[in-house]
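Much of what follows relies on a compact textual record of a protein's fold. With that in mind, consider the following protein and its fold in C-alpha cell form.
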Amino acid sequence: MELENKESVLFVDDEPAILSSLKRLFRKSGFNCYFAESGEEGLKVLEQQPIDLIVSDMRMPKMSGAEFLSIARSKWPDTVRILLTGHSDIGATIEALNKGGIYRYISKPWNDQELEEAIDQSLRLRRLEREREEWLKLTQTQNEKLQSFNTELEARVLTRTQEIQQTADMLDMAYEELKQSSDMFIKVFSTIISSRFNSQRINASMMADLAKKIAQKVNLPKDEINHIYYACLLHELGKTGLPDSILAVPESSLDSENTEIYRQYPALGEMILMGVDQLALTSKIIGSHMERFDGQGFPNGLKGSAIPRGARLLRVVRDFIGLQMGVLERESMSNDEAFKYIKSHSAKIYDPGVVKVLGLFQSDFVVSSVSSGERHIDVLALKPGMKVARDVTNANGILLISKDFLLTNPIINRFMSIERLERKKLKVYVYLDGEGK
C-alpha cells in the first residue's frame, strides 16, 4: 500500500546507458520510477500506470520527444512534462513547448543536482494541481449540501452559492486569460529563456515596460508597439544556443573569439521566430537590435533609418537597463550614470530621437529600487483587492502572475502554498493606492 501512495515518474530515452544512469541517480528516491526506451513504450506505461511526471529525451527514432509529449498531453493533460535536449535542438524545443506543453527543458548532459531539483519542483507543481482539484471538488460538494437545505435557509443558500460561483468564475476567467493571452504566453516564455542565464540576465520585463512607454509617447501604431513589447521580452532567445561560458561574462569582457560567437545571437533569435507569421515584425526587430546608429553594429552593419525603428528603440532600453544591472560592463552603473552613458553615445550607438524621449522616463526605471507609488509586502499581509506593481515569479524565475493583476483570496492562498513548498519568500510589490482599503 505504501508504494501506491508514492508519486510516479516515467523516464523515456532510447539510449540504455542514459536510462541506466537515471536508474542509479534515482535508486533511493522517494517516488516510483518507470523507464521506457521509446515513445511507443512510454505510451504503454502511461496506459498501465498513473504517472505524475514524464522526463523525456528529445531525439529518439520513430517518435521524437516532441511527438511523444504532444500525445501524452492530449491523453493525460494533468501529467507534468520535462524535456531533455541538447543546445542544438532549440527549434525542436520550441515545437515541444508549443505542442507538448512542457513545464521546462534541461540541457544534456545534465547536472545531477539541477535534474533532481527540477523533478522535485515538478512534483510539487503536480501536488498543487491536486490541491486545486480537491478544492474544486470540495466547493462542488458544499454547493450540493447548500441546495439541500430547507426553504427557510433558501435565501442564505442562494447568496452563498452566488458568492462561490462568482469566485469560481473569476478563477476560470483568470485561467482562461492566462491560457489564451499571447502577451502572457510570451511573458512566460521570456522567463523560461532568462532562467538559463543566471546572474547575466537583463530584466526583459522592465525593458518591455520602458519601451512601451517610449513607443506610446511618440505615437507609434498600436500593433507596432505590441511587436516592440514582444521583442523586448524575447530579445535573448538566440542566446539559448550559446555556451554557458560565454553567457556568464559581461559583453565588454568577451575576447575576440567569443565575441564572434556571441554576435550570432540576434540572427539566431530572428531565425527561430521567422516561421511564426504573427511575430514577423517581432523577429525582424530582434534580428536588428544590436545594430548601431553609425553603422558599426551587427549582424548586418545597418545604419541610421535603415535600422527598423523598433530595433533602435530596443537597443536603447536594453543598454539602459543592462548597464544598471552590470550585464554589459564589468561594473553596474547607477541610473544617472547609465543615462549619461546613453547620451554620450547618441548618434553613434543610439538613435538621438529615442535617447531624447528616454530622458522623460529615466527616473521611473531605476533597477532594484522601490518607487514612491509601490511597496514591498509580505505574502501574509496581502489582502484581496490589492494590485501587484511588478511581475511575481517563483524561486526558479517562472512567472506566477503579471504586473497589474488584482489579487483574490485563492491567489493569495496559492502564494502561501508555494512559499511553504519552496521554503523561500516570494517577492511581491503592490501599488500604494490599490490595497483594497
Remarks:
- The chain has three domains: 8-121, 183-364, 374-435.
- Residues 183-364 form a domain with the Hypothetical protein af1432 fold (CATH 1.10.3210.10).
- The mean pLDDT is 83.
- The CA atoms of residues 8 and 32 lie 5 Å apart.
